[in-house]
Fold:
Amino acid sequence: MTELVDAPTRPATLGVPWRNTFAALGPAFYTALSPTPLPEPYLVGVNAPLARDMGLDAGVLASSEAVQALTGNLALAGTQPLASVYSGHQFGAWAGQLGDGRAILLGEAQTPAGPLEVQLKGSGLTPYSRMGDGRAVLRSSIREYLGSEAIQALGIPTTRALCVTGSDAPVRREDIETAAVVTRVAPSFIRFGHFEHFSARDMPGELRQLADYVIDRFYPQCRVDGRFDGNPYAAFLEAVSERTALMVAQWQAVGFCHGVMNTDNMSILGLTIDYGPFQFLDAFDPGHICNHSDEAGRYAYNKQPNVAYWNLFCLGQALLPLIEDQDLALAALESYKTFFPRELEARMLAKLGLQQAQAGDRELIESALGLMARDRVDYSIFWRRLSRHVAGGPADSVRDLFLDRDAFDAWLQHYSQRLDSQGQAGTGAQMLATNPKYVLRNHLGELAIRQAKLKDFSHVQALLGLLQSPFDEHPEHDDMAGFPPDWASHIEISCSS
Ligand code: AMP
Ligand code: MG
Structure:
């Protein structure tokens, strides 16, 4: 390995104080270890708005000391690096122990936005790396950086990405690629799989400790609102079900496919987590499978809502030793079945600019989706053009998207009558603030990645900026709001990252 000649010997600082309350849970929950250095790291990008929210100076983050520290080459004063252990169900089967195989938790930065855990993803081997190399490649790190910030800007709960650093160290995937580290940020990275781990291992003390830790920090109302006969663990399961329902409803509305909804990739806080083979829909295909490794289509777009429930069921099973009553656990899970459809309908109505649900609205939504599916209409472009039409633009730009124009005309007539009955000014503007102009289509990410591989990171940063205000027009970037080029359909996105 190349010598890190300019690395200072004292610990670095980012100018924030640190704690690590997860570490205080004790050694059953993790292995304490330091990241493995990478040679000659360089900065790929800093997320300045997030840095600002965290009270960090983006300039300090770009300093060579910070780049060394955030690549894992230099200790950060006050941090307690560790890899946590979890288990999980992968593609519907119990996979046993997994754990942070390539992510190292530094601790919680005490920021103006509250305590935020900071993780270095791709920072080397851990006891949980199994067959992996502990690394992440530049390509997938840029996808996570852009994808998580795009989801954030769309108002969907997610882990964030503070920065990406790279190194020319080779990493073997299908081809030889280069290494990168994403600095991920979230209130907590705890997954359903953490609970499954201690439940499957028959460690009820640790299971309770973990549940109490999460409830006290993130779901304190579960102890006070007296639901479920005052059983805080059942109330917790219900609250997680509701947050998960809210997240998935937002995914469906915006056309986001996660791609690997294994229980170890489900956040206990209902955050979108672990950006791998994710994709925003291009042409609307309800059965779209974004992950080329998912041959059976378990995680297809239209399967996501049911898979989330399946995953919550696994969580419920894991929490059963604490809930102690199967009927209560089932009642807690039941909330997903009312919450999810209600949230999805609310979001689809908002996409249509409809303020108050009326009889017949569900048919209006479903017939639009049915027509789009039949003609494989581009999902984001449809909603944006419809918004523009309602805001006073031409109907033809929407109509032109369909092969069956008569069917579309009939739908539009029906929809226009419904809008007129509402009689509210400003609906078009509201729709333009609901239906994004810019989403992270695979080909946009791919073009930025190609430049990044040539060490020009300006395209990554420009795309980040665009995705951070996806409802604004940015007319100079109209080309990035258009249909995907033909070559985009040949981009293969798999679990290889
Ligand atoms: P994923 O499907 O990416 O969520 O990963 C599933 C499990 O494999 C987790 O325990 C990851 O930490 C681990 N993993 C994935 N890629 C690697 C890698 N390159 N090196 C070590 N562990 C990995
Ligand atoms: Mg994962």
Remarks:
- The longest helix spans residues 326-351.
- The two ends are 22 Å apart (CA to CA).
